[in-house]
From TrEMBL:
Residues 1-20 form the signal peptide. The keyword Transit peptide does not apply. Transmembrane segments: none annotated. The lineage of its organism: Eukaryota, Fungi, Dikarya, Ascomycota, Pezizomycotina. This is Lytic polysaccharide monooxygenase.
Length: 374
């Protein structure tokens, strides 16, 4: 029979071991709903996403969401020592502060190898800290409230695992981003869905067994446009299974990613916050699809009237178009051939003319595809 002193010492060792594991530090994560935020996701996926325990529907915010400006440098940092020889990580976003099992996380930055520690054979020693990584919120993400997810596939371990911590963030536009939108030159963007593995049916049965046996960090099947390789690419192993069974890419201007923005007073204090959730988004999809079909008919009608390019020397007056109807996402643009409309407050505004000798294509989206008419 163990003595009280032995049990106390054993409990102390367990607490120390738990503290030594890796936990997201920056941005500030949600308050974890149960013990073990540093533990991997359950192999059966019951706590996917964000280590949300079964029966819990809402995570508590610790303080205030981390503010982030599109295009400005952001920091990813951790506490703990059990880095398991590094591995590969992704940073992704999903709208609102209530992620659920059907949430789609869009990858905005990928680190292949050397995350959360660079060039480590095992774990960190006392006094050492995990590495710090930089990334940005890219153009194509609609300003608003999001859940940011850090996911990690470790290089060394006893069995295939996946780690995940989440943080609430509020995204806003920079002045440069707003200027680009005003010039109507921003193109539609699409972000890959987050890689999922080692969590049962939630990841479609995808496993990283071969990479773990070889003790090599994985190269993600769909890393996206923003990728870092802190340790180079020579020792990466390409992951054979897709790891993204339900999502072949997330367009930034679709309801699955576009988030309702927050209004502010002159002092900068938020007066109204309406984070998008998957349930509210799905309720709008049917109406939005019908609206887009109606708008497509309107665009086709206008296109049939454009029988010749606009002359360079004598620009034709813009076609007088009625104000489009139907729901829309704030900041979204609608192409009307030689005119465009902007969505403000969930409604389309009166059409505005494009510059002479130009027209647009592509229907509605985050920006307009503007081309020369000549």
């Amino acid at each position: 029979m163990r003595s009280t002193g032995t049990l106390t010492a054993y409990a102390g060792l367990l607490a120390l071991a738990a503290q030594a594991h890796i936990i997201l530090e920056t941005p500030t994560p949600f308050k974890f709903a149960e013990y073990g935020p540093s533990n991997p996701l359950s192999p059966d996926g019951r706590d996917w996403p964000c280590k949300i325990p079964p029966g819990t529907t809402k995570l508590e915010i610790d303080g205030s969401p981390t503010p982030m400006v599109i295009g400005e440098p952001q920091t990813l940092s951790f506490t703990g020592h059990a880095v398991h020889g590094g591995g590969s990580c992704q940073i992704s976003l999903t709208p609102g502060f209530e992620p659920n099992k059907k949430s789609k996380f869009a990858v905005i930055h990928t680190i292949e190898g050397g995350c959360p520690a660079i060039n480590r054979k095992g774990n960190l020693d006392d006094g050492e800290n995990p590495n710090i990584y930089n990334y940005t919120i890219p153009d194509g993400i609609t300003p608003g409230d999001y859940t940011l997810a850090w996911t990690w596939l470790n290089r060394i371990g006893g069995q295939p695992e996946m780690y995940m911590n989440c943080a609430p963030v509020s995204v806003s536009s920079s002045s440069k981003a707003r200027q680009r939108r005003e010039k109507q030159v921003e193109k539609r963007k699409q972000f890959p869905g987050v890689f999922m593995a080692n969590i049962g049916e939630a990841s479609g049965g995808c496993l990283t067994t071969e990479a773990l046996k070889a003790q090599q960090a994985i190269a993600f099947p769909h890393p996206g446009d923003s990728v870092d390789h802190p340790e180079g690419t020579d020792n990466l192993i390409r992951q054979p299974c897709d790891g993204n069974p339900d999502n072949n890419g997330v367009p930034a201007d679709e309801p699955a990613i576009a988030s309702s923005s927050s209004s502010s007073t002159a002092t900068g204090t938020k007066t109204e916050t309406q984070p998008s959730t998957l349930s509210s988004t799905k309720e709008q999809v049917s109406t939005l699809s019908t609206t887009k079909a109606q708008l497509s008919t309107l665009v086709t009608s206008l296109a049939s009237e454009a029988t010749a390019p606009v002359p360079h020397t004598s620009p034709a007056p813009p076609v007088a178009s009625a104000v489009p109807t139907g729901l829309c996402t704030n900041g979204e643009f609608l192409c009307l051939v030689t005119q465009f409309s902007i969505c403000t407050g969930g409604k389309w505004k009166a059409p505005q003319p494009l510059a002479a000798d130009t027209h647009c294509t592509g229907g509605s989206g985050v920006g307009l595809n503007v081309v020369n008419s000549a």
